[in-house]
TrEMBL record:
<keyword id="KW-0320">Glycogen biosynthesis</keyword>
<dbReference type="InterPro" id="IPR011831">
    <property type="entry name" value="ADP-Glc_PPase"/>
</dbReference>
<comment type="similarity">
    <text>Belongs to the bacterial/plant glucose-1-phosphate adenylyltransferase family.</text>
</comment>
<dbReference type="InterPro" id="IPR005836">
    <property type="entry name" value="ADP_Glu_pyroP_CS"/>
</dbReference>
<comment type="pathway">
    <text>Glycan biosynthesis; glycogen biosynthesis.</text>
</comment>
<feature type="site" description="Could play a key role in the communication between the regulatory and the substrate sites">
    <location>
        <position position="98"/>
    </location>
</feature>
<dbReference type="GO" id="GO:0005978">
    <property type="term" value="P:glycogen biosynthetic process"/>
</dbReference>
<feature type="binding site">
    <location>
        <position position="164"/>
    </location>
    <ligand>
        <name>alpha-D-glucose 1-phosphate</name>
    </ligand>
</feature>
<feature type="site" description="Could play a key role in the communication between the regulatory and the substrate sites">
    <location>
        <position position="59"/>
    </location>
</feature>
<dbReference type="InterPro" id="IPR005835">
    <property type="entry name" value="NTP_transferase_dom"/>
</dbReference>
<keyword id="KW-0548">Nucleotidyltransferase</keyword>
<dbReference type="GO" id="GO:0008878">
    <property type="term" value="F:glucose-1-phosphate adenylyltransferase activity"/>
</dbReference>
<comment type="function">
    <text>Involved in the biosynthesis of ADP-glucose, a building block required for the elongation reactions to produce glycogen. Catalyzes the reaction between ATP and alpha-D-glucose 1-phosphate (G1P) to produce pyrophosphate and ADP-Glc.</text>
</comment>
<dbReference type="InterPro" id="IPR011004">
    <property type="entry name" value="Trimer_LpxA-like_sf"/>
</dbReference>
<protein>
    <recommendedName>
        <fullName>Glucose-1-phosphate adenylyltransferase</fullName>
        <ecNumber>2.7.7.27</ecNumber>
    </recommendedName>
</protein>
<feature type="domain" description="Glucose-1-phosphate adenylyltransferase/Bifunctional protein GlmU-like C-terminal hexapeptide">
    <location>
        <begin position="289"/>
        <end position="377"/>
    </location>
</feature>
<dbReference type="InterPro" id="IPR029044">
    <property type="entry name" value="Nucleotide-diphossugar_trans"/>
</dbReference>
Amino acid sequence: MAKEMIAMLLAGGQGSRLYALTEKLAKPAVPFGGKYRIIDFPLSNCVNSGIDTVGILTQYQPMVLNEYIGNGQPWDLDRLHGGVHVLPPYQKASGSDWYKGTANAIYQNIPFIESYDPEYVIILSGDQICKQDYSDFLRFHKEKGAEFSVAVMEVPWEEASRFGLMVADENDKITEFQEKPKQPKSNLASMGIYIFNWDILKKYLIEDEADPNSSNDFGNNIIPNLLKDGRNMYAYHFSGYWKDVGTISSLWEANMEILDPEHSGINLFDNDWKIYSRNSGKTGHKITETAVVENCMITDGCRIAGHVKRSILFSGVKVAEGAEVEDAVIMGGTVIESGAVVKHCIVAENVVIGQNAVVGEMPHDGEKGVATIGSGIHIGERAKVGPNAMVNANVKDGEEEW
């Protein structure tokens, strides 16, 4: 049975700019927002948009991500025909090939796409925080008679040179594409989310693969080739919340924005567009009589006896009496012992912060530094980790290196 549109989700990114957080973890598997991982957002968008077939292309450090996705049940993607499929690189008769670029990754999975005989294919990124209705995007694509459409957002002109930009006419037809230009002609930034007519995408993937000089990338090769051939290409304007959480500071900012949905535009309490995730199976959280909690996201299994302010606490976090946590993102299973001060930082999973240790500090005017502690690290008693520090090795008692 043919599918009208299937999704191909690029989830193999290394996320090198997240440093310690992705040392043993694919970027789409990075925890976010208390009870989610980044990949929950595109998967939830798919099921909320009526897309029931998703291919997830994995490559870098896939173990946690594969285990988390499982059979797709949390996102209602455990289907007999369709559902979620994890698609790593695999050995072929001609040898084994890693995914060489975004276009090559899709090319290697042409047989998977063909098995569903879709009219349209939507290409998604597994490393963005975004709530988007892909069915509205598809409606736009059909109404325009497009062969290729890209979701775009208007960005401030002074920041436009940081993005891949689409130049479009008054009918939203794309006339030019600029990749991070010094002198931008547009402020329509590509979100890296594309809809193709499948017959067109297949043709250009095969031609691109046959070009020995190609980098096998959508932005560098496929889109310029479509433009060169005068294909019907359109820019779909998206006005909701979208953030590429590719850096420590942007990941921290996106987590903090959850606590202020009225101003930030990201509302995880919206019952009309739920973000689904795998249940941790932990008990309810407990806040003792000694605790002080202000404007926080406290998830299942947490035990709070200290002071926590403007912070995101993932499942199973423990904050002892006398500890202070402020403007922090604390991932699952972390223990913060008595007297510890943890501020303006991201702490990965299963960290222990010892008694009277100090991690991070509130920034002074104009500073943006976010301290980061990698997973499984033990910060010893009285140790100090300053702002902007990146810790991926155990810090002994009293060490003060930042």
